Amino acid sequence: MIHPLPDIMLEPLVRAGLLEDLGRAGDLTTDAVIIDTNTPVRAAFVARQDGVIAGLDMARLSFALMDPRITFEPHVSDGSAVTAGTRLATVAGPARGILSGERVGLNFLSHLSGIATATAQLVELVRPYHARITCTRKTMPGLRAIQKYAVRAGGANNHRFGLDDAILIKDNHLAFAGGIRPAVERARANAGHLVRIELEVDTLEQLAEGLEVGGVDVFLLDNMPPDMLREAVQLVNGRAVTEASGGITPETIIAVAQSGVDLISLGWLTHTVRVLDIGLDYQA
């Protein structure tokens, strides 16, 4: 079960989308074409392809903010797997508000459902193995909370939400700090008791050095081929969490999971995933 985000987090994003779309003069097409402003009409969100749904509340708000008289009745919930032709939700109310809010609602619903769908496919691929799927901070500015929500709707886990969640020492940190030992020791000295430390390593030699220094909770095994990942997992031997990342695709993820890593993180889940094809169909 996916716990929905509260409207107070979603409304600013939907409001910004509507204001962007309405521009300086409002919906010229709808205002010119639709004369009757009171007679209610009905329309349904329908999936055009199989997938996993996320973002129904964003769609609901896109109409509620346009006209509070519009009702939104969901027929599935976020996290639901649906087939092509499934009716996802029905909206009813004044035509002008429905037409003006349609594109923003579809944009959010299709985008988030695309993330949830791609995530669910990866989760299913690695189901026989120990590894869990997680996202990264490679999200679109302003959309992180809802994109990470969509990852959860697809059955996976979230990585850091921001720079203040945990300490993640990457290659540039190491270069500027002077190496693994000084970077990790400074991190340990400054981390609060609830803050975890993750270290990115590219080679088995770096991994061995990180293990020798100690105090690392998670090792990010960056761009390692499956054979090297397997060696890395054996080297860690349960002393820390292992995370594989870098260039992983649906075609290669099973080999990565077979290495025994604990986590597999993928940036493309949030920054380049394809939308799920969803339409809004008029109901006579």
UniProtKB/TrEMBL annotation:
Gene3D superfamilies annotated for this entry?
Answer: Aldolase class I, Quinolinate phosphoribosyl transferase, N-terminal domain
Q: Which reaction does it catalyse?
A: nicotinate beta-D-ribonucleotide + CO2 + diphosphate = quinolinate + 5-phospho-alpha-D-ribose 1-diphosphate + 2 H(+)
What GO MF terms are annotated? nicotinate-nucleotide diphosphorylase (carboxylating) activity
Q: In which pathway does it act?
A: Cofactor biosynthesis; NAD(+) biosynthesis; nicotinate D-ribonucleotide from quinolinate: step 1/1
Keyword check for Zinc: no
Q: Which UniProt keywords apply?
A: Glycosyltransferase, Pyridine nucleotide biosynthesis, Transferase
Q: How does it assemble?
A: Hexamer formed by 3 homodimers.
Q: Which PANTHER family match?
A: NICOTINATE-NUCLEOTIDE PYROPHOSPHORYLASE [CARBOXYLATING] (PTHR32179:SF3)
Q: What does this protein do?
A: Involved in the catabolism of quinolinic acid (QA).
What family is this?
Belongs to the NadC/ModD family.
Q: What is this protein called?
A: Probable nicotinate-nucleotide pyrophosphorylase [carboxylating]
Q: Whose protein is this, by species?
A: Komagataeibacter melaceti
